[in-house]
From TrEMBL:
Record keywords, A-Z: Membrane, Transmembrane, Transmembrane helix
Keyword field contains Methyltransferase: no
Protein name stated in the entry: Transmembrane protein 45B
Phylogenetic placement of the source organism: Eukaryota, Metazoa, Ecdysozoa, Arthropoda, Hexapoda
Pfam families named among the record's database cross-references: DUF716
Membrane topology type: Multi-pass membrane protein
Domain of life: Eukaryota
UniProt keyword Cell cycle present: no
InterPro entries: DUF716 (IPR006904), TMEM45 (IPR042127)
Family note: Belongs to the TMEM45 family.
Record-annotated membrane-spanning stretches: 12-31, 117-137, 143-164, 176-200, 212-239
């Protein structure tokens, strides 16, 4: 990770996943508010629209973690000897996010798993990441320590939000907080890369007090950008949901804990569907059993 590209890659991972979560959380919430009041429930992952039986999100986590581990391992040797122990820390971080992906995959497949294990492993991955970053800064410059400590604070907020979401499965705010801080973590990874390893332009003076004050200001701008992005996407998703027809077969495919039968569907004026194709229904049914 000690390069510009080494910060761009994890930043892209967190940035894209946060956008995916944001869209699905807001769409599920607004859909529930309009069509099935008080039926909203949080989940750590979301089904792919093109194939709801495929655990795309879990597979992407596993594949991304494997590529990260392989990249850090291949660059950790010098003259045939392992010398870059920072790479070992990064490998450990990738491992725990990959572990979370494996648990997500098992949960999606409806294997017998302890309740809320997907949330626990997600929070554990954030906790390990923050812990290793916190003790990753010995001997660094003041600015280097500052930008990474901002990252540690953000990671800690991700962990707390994940645990809060686990404990409040029907409250959308913890899910939005998890999305917000994951988005912030992704964009700040980019910013750290530009500050410490600028691909163009002059390097920052990492011991200059004025420039360190500018860094703190930039961090708050990232927070404002994350909030503006969430507000803008929320507005667009709300408009989309409001423009949906009043009667739709998707009633039974979003945020419902109640098993639906063809008789109930016809009675309510909806089109019956095969429950086995509704991954959201399956996830939410399992969540309701745990509460």
């Amino acid at each position: 990770m000690g390069s510009f590209l080494g910060h761009v890659v994890p930043g892209t991972f967190f940035f894209l996943f946060s956008l995916w979560w944001l869209y699905n959380v807001l769409y599920r919430y607004f859909y529930s508010k309009r069509f099935r009041p008080k039926s909203y429930r949080n989940t750590t992952t979301f089904p792919c629209p093109c194939n709801q039986n495929a655990a795309i999100e879990a597979i992407l986590k596993i594949v991304s973690a494997c590529f990260g581990i392989l990249g850090e391992f291949c660059t950790g040797f010098d003259n045939g000897k392992w010398t870059h122990w920072g790479n070992a820390q990064h490998i450990t971080m990738f491992f725990f996010f990959g572990l979370n992906g494996v648990v997500d995959l098992c949960t999606h497949r409806k294997w017998d798993m302890p309740p809320k294990l997907d949330y626990v492993t997600a929070a554990l991955a954030y906790a390990v990441e923050g812990f290793l970053f916190y003790y990753h800064l010995h001997g660094r410059s003041h600015m280097d320590i500052m930008v990474h400590m901002f990252l540690v604070y953000t990671i800690g907020a991700c962990m707390i939000s994940t645990l809060a979401e686990m404990m409040q499965p029907t409250n959308v705010l913890p899910a939005l907080c998890r999305t917000f801080f994951t988005f912030l973590q992704g964009t700040w990874f980019y910013q750290v890369g530009f500050i410490l390893y600028p691909p163009i332009g002059e390097k920052w003076d990492q011991d200059d007090h004025t420039q360190m004050m500018i860094v703190t200001l930039i961090f708050t701008w990232h927070m404002a950008a994350a909030f503006a992005t969430m507000f803008g996407m929320g507005t667009l998703i709300w408009l989309r949901v409001q423009n949906l027809p009043g009667s739709t077969s998707m009633y039974q495919m979003v945020d419902t804990n109640e098993p639906q039968t063809p008789e109930k569907c016809y009675k309510n004026g909806h089109t019956p569907y095969d429950k086995s194709t509704s991954s959201i229904n399956q996830i939410l049914d399992s969540e309701s059993e745990d509460v």
